[in-house]
Specification:
The protein is elongated and about 100 Å long. Strands 1, 2, 3, 4, 5 and 6 form a six-stranded mixed sheet that branches. The chain folds into three domains: 221 residues, Serine Threonine Protein Phosphatase 5, Tetratricopeptide repeat; 172 residues, TolB, N-terminal domain (Rossmann fold, 3-Layer(aba) Sandwich); 98 residues, Tetratricopeptide repeat domain (Serine Threonine Protein Phosphatase 5, Tetratricopeptide repeat). Helix 2 packs parallel to helix 6 and helix 21 packs antiparallel against helix 22. The protein starts with a helix and ends in a 6-residue tail after the last helix. The protein has 647 residues and is mostly helical. The protein has 33 helices and six strands.
């Protein structure tokens, strides 16, 4: 579950991070007379009084980008201002889409206890334009500073926008050293205004979870203005988020690399985003990415996106509690952003902070932020707590909605890990039927591979192999089918599939491909009874800080058993039993008890072995009676009952 969140989540975050319309930090407090980087400001809509419609689009984006470079300007995010439940516009009994005129922006500023309203305007006609930027103290309603620049032509107007932004910073007494250090001039032309407008539309689409539309607008922005680094970055990041093939993943990296090459012309917040994502996905240097995000947070303490992105780096290394804390910080800074709540829910489970995960979902629902992943997390939490009524509530909530597919998959997983294999197959088929109606063939293949894996898990390797044969040639299903063939002992089929996987690994990085291959080969060695070879292939150093790390003890436990080292097997299986929250619906925890029982029995720990067997039987009490794994466990328990060896 949480791995899927990483994929969904890790890419989109950046789009939010670099959209200067919402995430760039702000100017300072006039209430105490001192500028600080810890106050919010509100950017009103640009007031175009010239009659020239060319200035109706993109101008506020220029101002936001120019002002957003300052550590002293943090504009309230659009998602917060336009929150449909608790946003200031709704509290003012206005539409969430209400234009932010200077008067409306002032009221928003006061309700949010922010410091300043910044309002740009254009007046006059050709040869006599005036570009102005006013800063109003929200507490007093008085104008704190005004900057004006005269302009003759359209081009002069666009040149004047960065100038008035710089001038207002000085008039508000931002330190000159800060202005000098954080003031890349945003180049604006008629073409770039159109590109900026496309980026604004991309950000709006992302805010409501429409990533496909967000990609189209970002790509349009990059086409209009090829030197627009952030447009390339956003297009690449969103494409990575939705990629399903090796070619798409590579193109996402290519776009990120292009943005990296253009970063010297970007603003400082944009550079932070570009460099961090480049280190994360292209060069795969998580420590560099982590340090970049920390520097971003230090320079711009009110930016939400670096907290979210840093959380994903922590999650990638298995530090789920640190990840949860960063997601929570992001949600505090941008409480209207759906992504942060989804991340808190999923990684709250991984961090074993279940009550906080529930609180995150409830906070989102209270804001009418609601999606399938959050309800799937509630379902998982209810399962972990043994609350069947709460599980059923989530199933009923999803019925007839697009989320029904997600909950059917969860129900299938729960049925399988509790030994109800026939029920699991029926539920999986129901989920597949939904995807078949929309012709989503790849998810069906992935799901069928997962079902085949579970069939192998419960002791039916040949049946699992026949099921895997149907989907083995689908690249997205290959990692799972590798496991199936390894479990069935079909080395020729396994070797053939490994060759195909290496040639076409989908979105997997080369090092991940080799880890997955080694893992499958280890399972094959276990199937053949070669515990020592399996242990060599399951070297923990190879899998540290990867998604395989959590389930590694399960297979190392069986490898130690095959190698006649039961005490070490016990230690490995105990890791699984102690960490149920890491795999709530995968079956690893339930079947980990069976592994623990076998390891304890082999180690002569008879009483403790019986307890582990009995726990496994309790989990499987409603399971299919002819399940091979369950039948084998009962036979083993029967033989153990005749043993009187001490623990």
């Amino acid at each position: 579950m949480k791995r899927a969140l990483v994929v969904v989540v890790v890419a989109v975050v950046m789009a939010c991070a670099t959209a200067a319309s919402g995430q760039a930090p702000t100017v300072a407090s006039q209430r105490a007379g001192n500028l600080t980087p810890h106050d919010w400001s509100v950017l009103a809509d640009f007031q175009n009084g010239s009659g020239d419609k060319a200035f109706d689009i993109g101008v506020n984006y220029v101002l936001a980008m120019q002002l957003g470079q300052s550590p002293y300007f943090s504009f309230l995010p659009e998602s917060r201002i336009r929150d449909r439940i608790q946003g200031p516009l709704v509290q003012m009994q206005k539409s969430a889409a209400e234009p932010l005129t200077p008067a409306v922006a002032l009221e928003v500023c006061r309700r949010e206890n922010a410091a300043l309203v910044l309002s740009g305007s254009l007046s006059g006609k050709p040869d006599a334009y005036t570009v102005a930027l006013a800063a109003m103290n929200c507490a007093t309603g008085k104008v704190a500073a005004v900057a004006r620049v005269r302009a003759k032509t359209r081009e002069d107007v666009l040149t004047a926008l960065p100038q008035v932004a710089t001038d207002i910073r000085a008039k508000l007494k931002e330190p000159q050293a800060s202005i000098k250090a954080h003031n890349v001039r945003v180049q604006a032309t008629a073409a770039t205004l159109e590109a900026f407008e496309a980026m604004k539309l991309s950000g709006q689409a992302f805010d409501i979870g429409d990533q496909e539309t967000a990609i189209k607008h970002a790509e349009r922005a990059a086409e209009i203005e090829p030197s627009f680094a952030t447009a390339w970055l956003r297009a690449g990041t969103l494409l990575r988020n939705t990629s399903r093939t090796r070619e798409q993943s590579q193109r996402a990296n290519d776009l990120t690399t292009r943005a990296f090459g253009l970063r010297t012309s970007a603003t400082e917040p944009e550079r932070y985003a570009i460099e961090a994502l480049y280190y994360t996905y292209v060069t795969r240097e998580p420590e560099k990415a982590k340090q970049t995000y920390k520097a971003w947070i230090s320079t711009y303490p009110l930016a939400s996106a670096p907290h979210n992105n840093l959380a994903l780096v922590y999650a990638g290394s298995g530090d789920y509690s640190a990840a949860f804390d960063e997601f929570r910080e992001a949600s505090k800074l941008a409480p209207g952003m759906w992504l942060y709540y989804s991340n808190m829910a999923g990684y709250g489970i991984a961090a074993n902070r279940l009550e906080e995960a529930v609180q995150a979902v409830n906070a989102a629902i209270a804001r009418k932020i609601d999606n399938a992943s959050m309800h799937a997390s509630l379902y998982d939490i209810a399962f972990l707590k043994g609350d069947t009524a709460a599980m059923q509530r989530e199933v009923e909530w999803a019925r007839g909605k697009p989320a029904e597919l997600t909950l059917l998959v969860r129900q299938s997983q729960v049925a399988a890990c509790r030994g109800r294999l026939l029920e699991a197959l029926v539920l999986a088929d129901q989920a597949n039927a939904i995807d078949e109606r929309s012709k989503a063939t790849q998810p069906i293949a992935v799901r069928r591979a997962a079902v085949a894996r579970m069939v192998a898990f419960v002791g039916l390797p040949k049946l699992a192999e026949s099921m895997a044969d149907v989907v083995a040639d689908v690249p997205a299903a290959r990692v799972t089918t590798l496991f199936v063939y390894a479990s069935s002992g079909n080395r020729s089929r396994l070797d053939s599939l490994i060759a195909k996987y290496r040639a076409d690994p989908g979105v997997a990085a080369p090092e991940a491909v080799e880890r997955n291959v080694a893992f499958a080969q280890a399972v094959a060695e276990l199937t053949a009874g070669n515990g020592a070879k399996a242990l060599d292939l399951l070297n923990p150093e190879k899998y540290a800080a990867t998604s395989a790390w959590e389930v590694l003890p399960y297979w190392r436990g069986y490898a130690y058993l095959a190698a006649k080292r039961p005490a070490e097997a016990v230690a490995e299986f105990e890791k699984i039993v102690a960490a149920r929250h890491l795999f709530p619906t995968s079956g690893t925890w339930e079947f980990g008890h069976l592994g623990l029982a076998r390891a304890r029995a082999a180690a002569g720990m008879v009483s403790a072995a019986r307890q582990a067997y009995e726990s496994f039987f309790e989990f499987m009490k409603d399971g299919d009676p002819d399940l091979p794994a369950l039948a084998a466990a009962r036979a083993e328990y029967g033989r153990l009952a005749k043993t009187t060896a001490p623990n």
